[in-house]
Amino acid sequence: YPKKDFVGKRILITAGPTREPIDPVRYISNRSSGKMGFAFAQIASLRGAQVKLISGPTSLSTPYMVERIDIETTEEMLKSVLDNFEFCDVLVMAAAVSDFKVDQQSSKKIKKKNSLELNLIANPDILKEISSLKKNQVVIGFAAETENLSENASKKLVEKKLDYIVANRISETGFPFGSENNEVLILSASGECYELNSTKIDIASFILDIIKERISF
Ligand code: C5P
């Protein structure tokens, strides 16, 4: 059994994809399985933290002792993060948030036709929205990159005012979606840099180890 070194700490985790409706039966989404966020929730809970998991649609079961809040759209995820951010010590944004939503959702199912144009507009960036509300929370973002992993990750670290960013390498050998394993580069605002190729559970546990001294116990 893991050590109970996060007793009394509150960890807010987002996981999975979001869904942006097109009409009552169709939506736009992505390939996120939710496994990274759920693994984080599981290990944080086992280490004694009080965990809230804001989850998009996934087929995963809720880890033991974790409070789960189900959402579908980015707007719903943003609202739920805003409701809970003030009361957490750590925010882990592992969700693959949809950057776009359909401008005019149809209230009726769109009929079959030769072509269909959808106008997509920008969704809010949840991490940017909460950056101004940040007090003592440790904020961890995730990024999936196919190229220039460290450049893109450090750019996001600064732009989103994160304490840590965990960048997934997406390559022929490292395809993180749905996998138990992940190849990651972890960068911190204070200049730390770690490279790991491990299970999602071990990566989550490693992150808990390195953030531990940042949280006041
Ligand atoms: O999509 P992107 O690579 O910018 O995602 C990096 C981080 O930002 C992730 O932690 C993701 O959860 C978060 N994000 C967000 N709101 C968005 C898009 C991404 O908070 N609209």
UniProtKB/TrEMBL annotation:
Domain of life: Bacteria
Entry keywords, A to Z: Decarboxylase, Flavoprotein, FMN, Ligase, Lyase, Magnesium, Metal-binding, Multifunctional enzyme
Domain DNA/pantothenate metabolism flavoprotein C-terminal positions: 7-213
Catalytic activity: N-[(R)-4-phosphopantothenoyl]-L-cysteine + H(+) = (R)-4'-phosphopantetheine + CO2; (R)-4'-phosphopantothenate + L-cysteine + CTP = N-[(R)-4-phosphopantothenoyl]-L-cysteine + CMP + diphosphate + H(+)
Binding-site residues, CTP: D99, K109, P124, D125, I126, L127, F142, K156, K160
Residues annotated as signal peptide: none
Gene Ontology CC annotation, any one: phosphopantothenoylcysteine decarboxylase complex
EC number: 4.1.1.36, 6.3.2.5
Free-text comment on the cofactor: Binds 1 FMN per subunit.
Annotated segments matching region Phosphopantothenate--cysteine ligase: 11-217
Functional pathway: Cofactor biosynthesis; coenzyme A biosynthesis; CoA from (R)-pantothenate: step 2/5; Cofactor biosynthesis; coenzyme A biosynthesis; CoA from (R)-pantothenate: step 3/5
Needed cofactors: Mg(2+); FMN
Example of a GO biological process term: pantothenate catabolic process
GO function terms (MF aspect): FMN binding; metal ion binding; phosphopantothenate--cysteine ligase activity; phosphopantothenoylcysteine decarboxylase activity
Family: In the C-terminal section; belongs to the PPC synthetase family. In the N-terminal section; belongs to the HFCD (homo-oligomeric flavin containing Cys decarboxylase) superfamily.
Function: Catalyzes two sequential steps in the biosynthesis of coenzyme A. In the first step cysteine is conjugated to 4'-phosphopantothenate to form 4-phosphopantothenoylcysteine. In the second step the latter compound is decarboxylated to form 4'-phosphopantotheine. Catalyzes two steps in the biosynthesis of coenzyme A. In the first step cysteine is conjugated to 4'-phosphopantothenate to form 4-phosphopantothenoylcysteine, in the latter compound is decarboxylated to form 4'-phosphopantotheine.
Protein name: Coenzyme A biosynthesis bifunctional protein CoaBC
Residues of the full protein shown: 176 to 392 of 392
